[in-house]
Amino acid sequence: xxxxxxxxxxxxxxxxxxxxxxxxxxxxxxxxxxxxxxxxxxxxxxxxxxxxxxxxxxxxxxxxxxxxxxxxxxxxxxxxxxxxxxxxxxxxxxxxxxxxxxxxxxxxxxxxxxxxxxxxxxxxxxxxxxxxxxxxxxxxxxxxxxxxxxxxxxxx
Amino acid sequence: xxxxxxxxxxxxxxxxxxxxxxxxxxxxxxxxxxxxxxxxxxxxxxxxxxxxxxxxxxxxxxxxxxxxxxxxxxxxxxxxxxxxxxxxxxxxxxxxxxxxxxxxxxxxxxxxxxxxxxxxxxxxxxxxxxxxxxxxxxxxxxxxxxxxxxxxxxxxxxxxxxxxxxxxxxxxxxxxxxxxxx
Lengths: 156, 182
Known about the structure:
Chain A contains 6 helices and no strands. Chain A is mainly α. By secondary structure, chain B is mainly alpha-helical. The N and C termini of chain B lie far apart (46 Å).
């Protein structure tokens, strides 16, 4: 049962009479004013899916814009890099390989391998021996082409 | 106007042909109670009018999903209370005012309000109420002026009955003291 507590007069004499008032006819005109406002607003009982769509639509639009920026940025950056760094392109690599292919002198290459083999066995190099840069190139070439060095030496 | 129960009004509202008519009846049934509830919170008539419209606009949009887990009038009170509290919160943000200054502003609104018909003692009472913390002010108004049941207040304010009783008790004591000292 609802408790009847001290909700009577506040000591001091102030009563519960409502001290505020409204303009004349306010409550008669309010429903009409509200109906006018409602007609210009969203209709009632809009389906839940439509309302959810209305809520998430701005977020989806924002996400689409961000994604478009990201994709454009990524491909733009890639295009810029490829334009300004030709050494990265496949064509440039192929040209490089073709160029050094003609530089290949078989006797010189084999003599280098012999020297390498000799010093490898004794695990030491004479002070006078200087490691040619070409050696690296040939070893890299053989390694990349998967050619067996022992086989070449045996056949030679 | 025929007096419909809330259940009948909601049933009428669910009929698409009767929707506008049913909502009009709901507005007419509850507009005064909600108006006075809002008016005691925001004091100024024009602000109250705006908030009452916003309250019913939200009710119109949400009524189709109303599952009758609570009573229609507690649901409407809850919307109205949230609207009023949001209004005060925005007012504080807008003017960068701390809470005390907003209450001072509302207090001066009472002085200049052409739609305040109360005597000097009622004016002092309203100003004393404005000095209460927001929640206590709500509880005091709902209990003292609207004579709302604590159980209903509990549903509207999402607070236990015990806490509401304690809140009302503190509010009444503070007002008593304020009225005696001024």
